[in-house]
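Supplementary notes for students who missed Thursday's class. We covered one full example, reproduced here. Read the sequence, then the structure, then the short commentary at the end.
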Amino acid sequence: MRNPLNWSTDKDIRSWLPKLQSHRGLWVHGLQQNSLASIKAAAQAGYEMAEFDVRLTSDDVVILFHDEYIQNKLIKKTTYEELNSLTSITTFEDLLKWFVKTKNFKLNIEIKSRDLLSAKLEKQVCKLIRKYQIEKRVLVSSFNPLSLLKIRLWSPSVYRALLLSLEKGDQDHFLIQSGLLNILCRPHILNLRYQDYSERFRQLAKKIPIVLWTVNEASIYTKIKSEIHGVISDTLTPQDLKEL
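Structure (token representation):
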């Protein structure tokens, strides 16, 4: 993970990437997470970027949703129409129709896929990014380096962020933790679980931007703000950061 040769560097990335991102939009006051409403609220509150999750339905509609299931329905095995009848869902394209009308706002699109061979979700995301000509206003993040590889191949000008947690789990395989797969996907940014930030990452932070998630306490941000690039938060606001 320390080897900077496994990362892409870009002279503009630090000025492009904001210090604060809203986590799944601004939802803590009662709005639905991962929705057009919560992302609009983040923009209106002065955030420069919103992070959100995307998944693919059985009929190839990209939707904003975190979990694999909606009311016991596996998203990738269920149509958009059926899922939308269970709960209100924002499609990625509906979000982009609003987004292209905004200014000075960016999106962090987290690809929710553990697939090694299928590339449907990544292809659809890249297709919509090209359709709305927003390559310079978005980044794509994922725990899955192979998802980022697909983004690198189909939308090479889009910034890529590798998500990393050192907790035990399938998405935290040794090959990911070690950074060995980075040679394939060449991420520009490391989005790291804040509890895992330690000395091993301090040297890397001098080479590429490290963004910590999910930082919800001002005291935590204050301790490490000089070492890392920024944070993803549910509760910290742009005004909070100005006052720290």
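Commentary. Residues 120-131 form the longest helix (12 residues). The two ends are 30 Å apart (CA to CA). If anything here is unclear, bring it to office hours.
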